[in-house]
Design goal:
Layout lengths: L1 H18 L4 H38 L1
């Protein structure tokens, strides 16, 4: 009997958590920020590889 009441309490808490919409906007903004950061890091990584070769050539000639 006790396990059944514990299960019901957990399910009720989960149901309340799922229906709560207060943090949805902040989570959406966090996901958008994460996508922007990943795009910036990816772009810098790609550009860094293309810029490194000419800079290394200039450095070796000096």
């Amino acid at each position: 009997m006790r396990a059944l009441s514990l299960f019901k309490a957990v399910m009720d808490s989960l149901h309340v958590f799922i229906r709560d919409r207060r943090g949805v906007t902040s989570i959406e903004y966090a996901v958008i920020a994460l996508i922007i950061v990943l795009a910036i890091v990816g772009g810098i990584t790609r550009i860094g590889g293309e810029v490194a070769a000419p800079l290394n050539q200039i450095a070796s000639e000096l």
